[in-house]
């Protein structure tokens, strides 16, 4: 069971004390926040809602954002631990592929296509532990064929590894995907692989992620007659918008959002709820990214306002439902006056995608913060049940 001491705030305090007993006031000054804010975060009374704040605190403490999130190292969660057992063999497969080694295939083309389809279903259901278990063999089988098959499986591997907190390996998988797509000049998959590459970059590398998306947009614009490419152009605009927001360039983010909205309006939501590679590009997904960008800008009221016009259930990817309810919950929890509504939103988020909710450091911290604020009252049964399902021991 994860204790309250295993929170982002507790890790900030740990690293602050490791830095020669740095005071909260000094850390606040270096990170550009207030001492009161640092105190509330460390005590669990407040969550960190902005990636840019995490970047600033990590830089001030001379650690990585991953260190503050406990990603790739934190134990105690069954879903993460089950997946972690597969990571060494996934890593080994990626090294083998990057080194140019190719084994003889043991799959027929039909079986490989079926296995890729099954892996994609696991991705859409956000069942990352189950996906991690089949990736080592599937990566090597896809590498034997190469081309688009390898681009797709490496994309799935990158997505899986990133959500499990292994960004360095997610980046390796993304590079494999890019190389495979470029090798067969599949423009839509080049767009998809470049998108997952930008997503895999560390949060600290927001400007690099935006530049990478910009280069891909420029390179692929000439192929916009292909609807699949247009969907990926839209996704790349969204990626560049979020990265530019984290990088404190709101004007650039606004331009990218406008371009994404224009593409989405002309394409509409995908008829099957997923579209090319399950990217879900269309007006609904643009609205969800707008919510996330508003959250990054600290505009909780705007997040809630935007949510009223969005129906995430038209998209088949569970992580899109998770994003919707998690952003709403964190916006409602801001300030502590609507915690009951925030709890209801978090319950919806956990129901939509139990595994990623349970292993998301920001989601876990939000639940602990609600409990911390409810400490003077009896903790609601629903909050206690939600905490238990994601491995948080509120008794600590």
TrEMBL record:
<protein>
    <submittedName>
        <fullName>Transcriptional regulator, contains XRE-family HTH domain</fullName>
    </submittedName>
</protein>
<dbReference type="GO" id="GO:0003700">
    <property type="term" value="F:DNA-binding transcription factor activity"/>
</dbReference>
<dbReference type="GO" id="GO:0003677">
    <property type="term" value="F:DNA binding"/>
</dbReference>
<dbReference type="InterPro" id="IPR050807">
    <property type="entry name" value="TransReg_Diox_bact_type"/>
</dbReference>
<dbReference type="GO" id="GO:0005829">
    <property type="term" value="C:cytosol"/>
</dbReference>
<dbReference type="Pfam" id="PF13560">
    <property type="entry name" value="HTH_31"/>
</dbReference>
<keyword id="KW-0238">DNA-binding</keyword>
<dbReference type="InterPro" id="IPR010982">
    <property type="entry name" value="Lambda_DNA-bd_dom_sf"/>
</dbReference>
<dbReference type="InterPro" id="IPR001387">
    <property type="entry name" value="Cro/C1-type_HTH"/>
</dbReference>
<feature type="domain" description="HTH cro/C1-type">
    <location>
        <begin position="12"/>
        <end position="68"/>
    </location>
</feature>
């Amino acid at each position: 069971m994860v204790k309250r001491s295993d929170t982002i705030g507790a890790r900030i305090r740990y690293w602050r004390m490791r830095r020669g007993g740095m005071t909260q006031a000094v850390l606040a000054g270096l990170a550009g926040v207030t001492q009161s804010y640092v105190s509330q975060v460390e005590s669990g009374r407040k969550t960190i809602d902005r990636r840019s704040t995490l970047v600033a605190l990590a830089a001030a403490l001379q650690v990585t954002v991953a260190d503050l999130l406990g990603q790739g190292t934190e134990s105690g969660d069954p879903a993460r631990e089950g997946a972690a057992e597969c990571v060494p063999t996934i890593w080994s497969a990626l090294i083998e592929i990057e080194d140019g080694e190719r084994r003889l295939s043991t799959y027929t083309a039909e079986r490989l296509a079926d296995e890729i389809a099954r892996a994609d279903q696991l991705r859409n259901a956000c069942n990352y532990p189950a996906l991690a278990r089949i990736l080592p063999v599937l990566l090597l089988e896809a590498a034997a064929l190469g081309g688009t098959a390898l681009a797709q499986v490496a994309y799935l591997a990158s997505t899986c590894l990133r959500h499990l907190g292994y960004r360095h390996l997610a980046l390796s998988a993304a590079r494999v995907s890019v190389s495979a797509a470029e090798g067969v000049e599949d423009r839509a998959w080049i767009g998809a692989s470049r998108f997952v590459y930008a997503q895999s970059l560390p949060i600290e590398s927001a400007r690099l992620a935006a530049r990478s998306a910009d280069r891909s947009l420029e390179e692929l614009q000439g192929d916009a007659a292909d609807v699949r490419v247009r969907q990926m152009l839209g996704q790349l605009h969204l990626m560049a918008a979020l990265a530019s927001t984290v990088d404190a360039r709101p004007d650039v983010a606004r331009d990218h959002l406008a371009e994404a909205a224009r593409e989405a309006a002309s394409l509409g939501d995908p008829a099957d709820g997923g579209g090319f590679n399950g990217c879900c590009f269309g007006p609904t997904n643009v609205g969800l990214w707008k919510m996330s960008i508003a959250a990054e800008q600290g505009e909780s009221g705007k997040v809630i306002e935007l949510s009223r016009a969005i129906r995430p259930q038209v998209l088949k990817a569970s992580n899109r439902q998770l994003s919707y309810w998690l952003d709403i919950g964190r916006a409602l929890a801001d300030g502590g006056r609507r915690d009951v509504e925030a709890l209801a939103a978090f319950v919806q988020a956990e129901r939509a995608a139990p595994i990623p909710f349970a292993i998301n450091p920001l989601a876990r911290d939000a639940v602990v913060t609600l409990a911390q604020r409810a400490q003077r009252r009896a903790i609601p049964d629903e909050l206690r049940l939600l905490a238990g399902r994601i491995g948080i021991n509120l008794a600590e």
